[in-house]
Design goal:
By secondary structure, the protein is of the alpha+beta class. The chain folds into 2 domains: 19-65; 76-299, no CATH class. It is 35% helix and 8% strand. Strands 3-2-1-4 form a 4-stranded antiparallel β-sheet. It starts with 18 loop residues before the first helix and ends with a helix. The structure holds a DNA duplex.
DNA sequence: AAGCGGAGCAACCGCAGGGAA
DNA sequence: GTTCCCTGCGGTTGCTCCGCT
């Protein structure tokens, strides 16, 4: 037996909202509260006299009717923020790399459009997502992926990681990399989430390491590595705050064509109950780091 | 003027997490 | 400990607008 539907789909209106519906919803929420606790979205439509699904009401409010919503085009500054944050935490490859390699777990809001949106007051996750998918992605990822392994592993080559043609790199925004952006953000998130700060048990990768697997201790598996070999990374929990998972492993390989560190998409628990991402290479409490090459054919 | 296709964006869908019962 | 309900999220769809032919 499946889930009970959130509403009677036969008797709810769908599609674009009319001004009258907007007014009714806005009026109801402004007089009854809109913080999500005072209002029960499922039962709200009936109370507000709307023939809409509760989820639809919620979405309409959050994405359009809220008084603090900023309508209109994105500014260059907002472009930069999105690109920067996506650069740091938006890429699937990078994200899995984080998860598997950095032990960065306590991240309920990590890699969320809502987090990126939270850096821009008045913008919603839907806005940012749409904007990214329709404009920024094309703008930034339209170029051919370059092989970063053949380049000097500089921070500036971060842009190459995302396939941004040299000529199209923003000069004054996301990829102007005079400052090591990634670690500062990671550190910030880390501090916010855990209240801890880096110490000698916490690894701090510099951006070069972060974006260039070859600098991060992954063995160069050579031509045979591509889709034939993987690197197994064992991560052992070391803190007392770990609650339910003692260890995990990820399988990564270095795509020689793209320069991407890829994973095979299994076994990574995004919402693990781990309270920090603290990790280290080679200290006495951790067993982190490349442990060798596994013939991936054996796995299958 | 009409038709077509692409871009932009609002809205929907289904899933997962978390809390209450 | 289990089940159910609600919320929040990312991915996707589909409608509307606009420019081009």
């Amino acid at each position: 037996m499946g889930r009970t539907p959130c509403c009677d789909k036969e008797n709810v209106k769908r599609g674009p909202w009319s001004p009258e519906e907007d007014a009714a919803l806005k009026s109801y929420l402004q007089s009854h509260g809109s913080d999500g606790t005072a209002s029960n979205w499922i039962h709200l439509p009936k109370k507000a006299g709307l023939r809409r699904c509760g989820k639809s009401c919620r979405l309409r409010w959050l994405n359009y009717l809220r008084p603090d919503i900023k309508h209109g085009g994105f500014t260059e500054e907002e472009d930069s923020i999105i690109c920067n944050l996506y650069n740091q935490m938006g890429s699937r490859q990078v994200f899995n790399y984080f998860l598997t390699y950095l032990h960065f777990f306590n991240s309920p809001n990590f890699l969320r459009w809502s987090v990126i949106a939270s850096y821009m007051p008045g913008r919603t996750d839907n806005d940012v997502k749409n904007y990214w998918n329709t404009k920024l992605k094309k703008k930034l990822l339209g170029g051919k992926i370059k092989n970063i392994s053949s380049k000097e592993p500089t921070i500036a080559n971060n842009a190459n990681f995302f396939g941004i043609p040299e000529a199209e790199k923003p000069q004054d925004s996301a990829f102007s990399t005079s400052e090591p952006q990634v670690p500062s953000t990671l550190q910030m998130l880390y501090d916010v989430n855990s209240g801890l700060s880096a110490d000698n048990q916490t690894m701090s990768l510099n951006p070069d390491q972060l974006y260039n697997p070859k600098l991060s201790g992954f063995p160069d598996l050579g031509a045979r590595s591509r889709r034939n070999y993987s690197t197994t990374v064992s991560l052992s929990q070391e803190g007392s705050s770990i609650s339910d998972s003692s260890s995990m492993a990820g399988n990564l390989y270095l795509d020689q064509d793209s320069g991407f560190l890829m994973d095979y998409g299994f076994g990574v628990a995004y919402d693990n109950n781990v309270n920090h991402y603290g990790m280290s290479f080679g200290d006495k409490t951790s067993e982190v780091g490349p442990t060798g090459c596994t013939d991936f054919g054996d796995f299958f």
